[in-house]
């Protein structure tokens, strides 16, 4: 993979343990709501560029402001695009960064609890935030923000944990809720 391509697209496949049989179950991009305000900043650069004409000799001021707004907006959108949360059959990991790649990983066996929070905005737009709890005090993968369709992603993680045999399953046929007994116990 060339340098330019590595700067434009994160290489998820390079982090997989393919020899061990690891496969990607779900690759999660940031939800569009994470970049909404940065797109607004990009759009705000258009009037700044248009204001260069009536500014006359001071055209450089709206030009610099427009270039700054455009540059910052494009950069922040690209940083969010390069941030990926990946669910595999063995672990969950997050890859982010443009020039420096950061990788945080957690095996499925270490996940004790997954909390999902959804603000009012998140309910309307369809995103949420995950918090992973483990027995470790300090961990590299704790909070994943702006996850699209969080209920489905939570079920995917729970399904992978269950299918890997890391959690016990209660036998339903042995469950006796006492519904067929009379209230007096006879």
From TrEMBL:
The chain crosses the membrane at residues 36-53, 59-81. The keyword Transmembrane helix applies. Pfam families: bPH_2. Keywords: Membrane, Transmembrane, Transmembrane helix. Residues 84-148 form the YdbS-like PH domain. The keyword Transmembrane applies. This is PH domain-containing protein.
């Amino acid at each position: 993979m060339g340098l330019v391509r590595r700067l434009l697209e994160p290489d998820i496949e390079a982090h997989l343990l393919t020899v061990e049989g690891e496969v990607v179950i779900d690759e999660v991009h940031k939800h569009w709501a994470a970049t909404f305000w940065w797109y607004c900043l990009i759009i705000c650069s258009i009037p700044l560029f248009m204001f260069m004409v009536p500014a006359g000799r001071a055209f450089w001021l709206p030009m610099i402001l427009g270039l700054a707004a455009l540059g910052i907006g494009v950069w922040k959108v690209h940083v969010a695009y390069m941030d990926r949360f990946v669910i595999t059959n063995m672990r969950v990991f997050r890859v982010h960064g443009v020039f420096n790649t950061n990788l945080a990983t957690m095996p499925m066996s270490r996940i004790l609890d997954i909390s999902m929070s959804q603000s009012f905005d998140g309910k309307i737009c369809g995103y949420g935030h995950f918090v992973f709890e483990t027995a470790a005090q300090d961990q590299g993968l704790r909070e994943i923000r702006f996850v699209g369709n969080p209920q489905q992603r939570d079920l995917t993680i729970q399904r992978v944990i269950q299918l890997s045999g890391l959690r016990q399953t209660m036998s339903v046929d042995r469950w006796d809720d006492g519904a067929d007994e009379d209230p007096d116990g006879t």
